Fold this protein.
Amino acid sequence: MAAEISTGRMKEEILAFASALDTDSEAIAGYISGMKEMNARGSMEIDLDKLKTVLTSGKTLLEDVERHKGKMFRQMIQDLFASNDVEKLHSLPEVQEKLETIKTKLFETAKRASTVRQSIDEFHHYFIKYNIRKYDDFDEYEDFLDETKNFMKLEWRKVAKKLRKQGEKSLIERVKELDAWDEVISRKRKITALDLMKTLAIDLGCKISQHVAKLYLLMTVSTENSEERNRNFKQLAKVLQELGVIKRENSIIIERFVNVAHYLDRTFRVFAPFPEDLKVKKLDATFKHNVIRLMLREVLRLEAAFRYPDSPDLYGRDELLRVRSRLRKVFSKQLERISTKIEELRMKSLPKGEEDQRIIAMKKQLDAGIKDIWMELDLNQ
């Protein structure tokens, strides 16, 4: 009887390992296929060495699974336990030994598959989920816009819909749950969890928007054609409107960025035309579009951080503060990279790399307007 129970438990463990291996193998195969397709289309701007490493590890694992007939384990075990003489099988040492061997191999392979999948998940999240194309990858702006719409639909909204059905929630929703449980971050000052995250969203939103303003200020003073200046801001607002991760409309985060784009447009119309002595050299188009792409990624990253339904439960103050700290660290690194790029562009464009006092004054005015826009953010919407 004891042998029967032991064997039955082992059967369940083996079937669980086999099921996990099947799931991870299918996910890995899907990721590899998608990444190969994107790489072939030239639509990924990534570290090719990392891509090669990820693809190789996934490919090797899948070959090993196939070689060991990983997907056959389940049927083999089912056949073994379907024997008419099952009571005798329970007590046979060779059966026990065979089951132990199968269990060990499956466990090792399933563990390896889980590790590879986690690595590919991280790679996919970092490089693919934010892989917005560049303007100059396309002959026409409308083609770029259509590609962005399709990208958001497939990579974000379609997946978000599935996550919603599974009961997953966004960071904003998790934070509201904390407040519903009367979790107060600072009882002395009565700062709620939502207040704390709102402050973070405003701070990060302002910083991203200020980088947008710096770049578009350079673009504006380097452009003599007023139609081109106006078109730049219209195109910016259009693409920003497409970056909602749940649906195109009604994103409280994206709405702030779109308002910033309109504000920049209105402000620069007042200042234009710029005096001749303020004009700068024509910006390098490829470099400029690379920076725009990096900024759009951070807009999407902020939108996803707060609104994408993949946030784990928050169990109190310490965990919330860790999430807040991690987000600051992620954005700090990315914004530092953008800042370096904009500074490089500025140094190449301005005479002697020096910035006119009028430009500096204009930046201060823009920063103040941007802050006003973000202070209107309401996470309760």
